[in-house]
Every structure is written in structure tokens, then in C-alpha cells.
């Protein structure tokens, strides 16, 4: 039935994805203004999000059993309303749990690679996109699970190394030289000679 609805190779209805992208862009833009980190740390908010995630999971299982409802509510290509609701409930729940756990030193140390890669998410996206286009040309296919896992870990390691380099170099803006490598202005004492 899906073959009748979608042409071969269809991967997404880009217009439907805007229901996630545009609000997420606004939330990301206003993250600090709206103090979202503090809101996610509130116990009542965390409990509501976790219970909401459980409800979304249960409802999703029920919807998946009904073929006609699943095509509309949970359609992957057309990105049905159930997927949008799930994304806006589950992702904040995951963020709330991670925000809570980041208050503990042991978790902060364990999550460091993910946190620093997240601070350079646009860079990581570009690196992953380049890897996605070049690796299939360089590495022979088909890939087994082991080879795919190694490739995934290698790409993540490259993103992590790049993020650490930018932090070490003090390279906050790519259109400016890194702080570590900028020429320093002459000090006042050296001008007195």
C-alpha cells in the first residue's frame, strides 16, 4: 500500500518536517531568554515529561496496531501528528533527565565527549555530511555490523577531536583567527625602550 502512496526513493515530506524544525529553531534561539535549562530541572516538569513519554509510548504501540491510523498518525514519510507529538514530549524528557544528571560530576565527566560535540553541533553536522558522502566511496560495501560500528565511532571521534581543538585554540568564530594563534599587541613596557 505504501508503494502506491510514495514514489520510489521517497524519504520525507519536507513540508511536514517543518512542524519540528521551525518550533525547534525558535526554542533554540530563545533557550537562554526563556531559561529552559532551569525549567527542565523542576521536579514537576521532569515528572510530567517522563509520564508524558510513557503515555506517548503506550499510545504509539496502540496506533501501530491499527494500519489505517498508523498511516495518518505515525507515517514516517509524511511525518504524521503522532510523530510530532512524540518528538515534542520525548525529546524534552530526555533533555530534562540529562540536565538533571549533568549536575553530578561523574555523569558530567562521562558525558563530556557528547557535551563538547553538542557545543559544536553545526561543525559536527558538516563533518558528518562530508563523511556520509565520502566514506561510501572509499570503504568497500556491503558493510557488516562491525564495520558500520567502527565507521560510526571514527566519525564521532573526528567530531570530538575537532570540538576539542576549537576549544583548545579558543576558536569561537570561524571567520576570525583562533585566539591562541592571534598576534598579541605589543605590551606597554616594550614600547618604552
Question: What does the model show?
Answer:
The protein is mainly alpha-helical. Helix content is 72%, strand content 0%. It is globular. The chain starts with a helix and ends with a helix. The model has no long low-confidence stretch (mean pLDDT 83).
What's the SSE blueprint?
Elements (H helix, E strand, L loop, with lengths): L1 H4 L8 H16 L6 H6 L1 H22 L2 H7 L7 H21 L3 H15 L1 H18 L6 H25 L18 H4 L2
Helix pairs in contact: 4-6, 7-9, 8-9
Q: How much helicity do the residues have?
A: over 70%
Sheet with most strands: none
Oligomer kind: single chain
Determine the mean pLDDT: 83
Low-confidence stretches: none
- What is the number of beta strands? 0
SSE arrangement, N to C = HHHHHHHHHH
Question: What spatial form do the alpha-carbon principal axes imply?
Answer: globular
Number of helices: 10
Please identify the structural class as seen in this structure.
Answer: mainly alpha
What share of residues are in beta strands?
A: under 5%
C-alpha end-to-end distance: 85 Å
- Rounded to the nearest angstrom, the radius of gyration is 23 Å
